[in-house]
Amino acid sequence: MAQKPPKSEFNMSQVIRNLLKDNPKIGGNEAAAAIQAQYPSLNLNKNSFSVAFYTTRQKMGLKLAKRGKRMTTRKSSAAPKSPVTPQRAVGSVDLALLQATAKFLSDVGGADAALEAIKHVQAIQVK
Fold it and tell me: What does pTM read for this prediction?
Protein backbone atom coordinates (compact mmCIF):
# COMPACT_ATOMS: atom_id res chain seq x y z
CA MET A 1 0.00 0.00 0.00
CA ALA A 2 1.27 3.48 -0.90
CA GLN A 3 2.22 5.81 1.87
CA LYS A 4 0.65 9.21 2.21
CA PRO A 5 3.01 12.13 1.77
CA PRO A 6 3.91 13.87 5.02
CA LYS A 7 1.47 16.55 6.06
CA SER A 8 2.48 20.08 5.29
CA GLU A 9 2.95 22.48 8.15
CA PHE A 10 0.91 25.04 6.26
CA ASN A 11 -2.75 25.29 7.28
CA MET A 12 -4.38 27.93 5.08
CA SER A 13 -7.44 28.42 7.31
CA GLN A 14 -5.30 28.90 10.41
CA VAL A 15 -3.03 31.38 8.64
CA ILE A 16 -6.07 33.32 7.41
CA ARG A 17 -7.60 33.33 10.92
CA ASN A 18 -4.37 34.69 12.39
CA LEU A 19 -4.18 37.34 9.68
CA LEU A 20 -7.80 38.40 10.28
CA LYS A 21 -7.26 38.57 14.03
CA ASP A 22 -4.42 41.04 13.45
CA ASN A 23 -6.33 43.12 10.86
CA PRO A 24 -10.08 42.39 10.48
CA LYS A 25 -10.52 44.99 7.71
CA ILE A 26 -7.98 43.45 5.33
CA GLY A 27 -9.19 42.56 1.84
CA GLY A 28 -8.71 39.36 -0.13
CA ASN A 29 -5.96 40.58 -2.44
CA GLU A 30 -4.03 42.17 0.42
CA ALA A 31 -4.33 38.98 2.48
CA ALA A 32 -3.10 36.87 -0.44
CA ALA A 33 -0.11 39.16 -0.88
CA ALA A 34 0.68 39.02 2.86
CA ILE A 35 0.51 35.21 2.92
CA GLN A 36 2.60 34.95 -0.24
CA ALA A 37 5.21 37.21 1.38
CA GLN A 38 5.14 35.13 4.57
CA TYR A 39 5.45 31.81 2.67
CA PRO A 40 7.41 32.58 -0.53
CA SER A 41 7.78 28.93 -1.61
CA LEU A 42 4.01 28.39 -1.43
CA ASN A 43 2.13 28.03 -4.72
CA LEU A 44 -1.10 29.81 -3.76
CA ASN A 45 -4.19 29.06 -5.87
CA LYS A 46 -6.10 32.38 -6.01
CA ASN A 47 -9.53 30.77 -6.44
CA SER A 48 -9.26 28.35 -3.54
CA PHE A 49 -7.69 31.08 -1.41
CA SER A 50 -10.62 33.42 -2.11
CA VAL A 51 -13.12 30.76 -1.07
CA ALA A 52 -11.17 29.97 2.10
CA PHE A 53 -10.67 33.65 2.93
CA TYR A 54 -14.30 34.73 2.62
CA THR A 55 -15.59 31.57 4.30
CA THR A 56 -13.25 32.17 7.23
CA ARG A 57 -14.35 35.82 7.42
CA GLN A 58 -17.97 34.70 7.54
CA LYS A 59 -17.32 32.08 10.22
CA MET A 60 -15.49 34.67 12.31
CA GLY A 61 -18.48 37.00 12.00
CA LEU A 62 -16.65 39.61 9.96
CA LYS A 63 -19.03 40.99 7.40
CA LEU A 64 -18.04 43.05 4.41
CA ALA A 65 -19.34 46.60 4.16
CA LYS A 66 -22.73 46.67 2.48
CA ARG A 67 -22.78 48.30 -0.88
CA GLY A 68 -25.64 50.53 -1.91
CA LYS A 69 -27.92 49.45 -4.70
CA ARG A 70 -26.67 50.90 -7.93
CA MET A 71 -29.27 52.87 -9.80
CA THR A 72 -29.21 52.68 -13.57
CA THR A 73 -31.20 54.56 -16.14
CA ARG A 74 -31.95 53.52 -19.64
CA LYS A 75 -31.04 55.88 -22.39
CA SER A 76 -33.43 55.89 -25.27
CA SER A 77 -32.01 56.26 -28.74
CA ALA A 78 -35.43 57.12 -30.17
CA ALA A 79 -36.26 60.74 -30.87
CA PRO A 80 -38.57 62.37 -28.33
CA LYS A 81 -42.22 62.19 -29.29
CA SER A 82 -44.41 65.22 -29.69
CA PRO A 83 -47.12 65.67 -27.03
CA VAL A 84 -49.94 64.66 -29.40
CA THR A 85 -49.21 61.94 -31.94
CA PRO A 86 -51.83 60.29 -34.13
CA GLN A 87 -50.19 56.84 -33.73
CA ARG A 88 -51.41 56.41 -30.13
CA ALA A 89 -53.39 53.31 -29.36
CA VAL A 90 -56.95 53.80 -28.25
CA GLY A 91 -57.12 54.11 -24.47
CA SER A 92 -53.43 54.91 -23.97
CA VAL A 93 -52.89 58.15 -22.09
CA ASP A 94 -49.65 59.67 -20.94
CA LEU A 95 -48.72 62.80 -19.05
CA ALA A 96 -47.90 64.84 -22.16
CA LEU A 97 -51.32 64.08 -23.67
CA LEU A 98 -53.06 65.03 -20.41
CA GLN A 99 -51.13 68.29 -20.23
CA ALA A 100 -52.02 69.14 -23.84
CA THR A 101 -55.68 68.35 -23.10
CA ALA A 102 -55.68 70.56 -20.01
CA LYS A 103 -54.16 73.42 -22.01
CA PHE A 104 -56.77 72.94 -24.75
CA LEU A 105 -59.60 72.98 -22.20
CA SER A 106 -58.30 76.19 -20.61
CA ASP A 107 -57.86 77.85 -24.03
CA VAL A 108 -61.34 76.91 -25.24
CA GLY A 109 -63.11 77.73 -22.00
CA GLY A 110 -64.34 74.43 -20.61
CA ALA A 111 -65.33 70.86 -21.45
CA ASP A 112 -68.60 71.71 -23.23
CA ALA A 113 -66.91 74.22 -25.52
CA ALA A 114 -64.10 71.72 -26.16
CA LEU A 115 -66.61 69.03 -27.21
CA GLU A 116 -68.28 71.44 -29.63
CA ALA A 117 -64.90 72.40 -31.09
CA ILE A 118 -63.95 68.74 -31.51
CA LYS A 119 -67.25 67.99 -33.28
CA HIS A 120 -66.72 70.90 -35.68
CA VAL A 121 -63.15 69.84 -36.45
CA GLN A 122 -64.27 66.26 -36.99
CA ALA A 123 -67.05 67.36 -39.35
CA ILE A 124 -64.74 69.37 -41.59
CA GLN A 125 -61.95 66.79 -41.80
CA VAL A 126 -61.87 64.82 -45.02
CA LYS A 127 -61.16 61.14 -44.64
Answer: 0.46
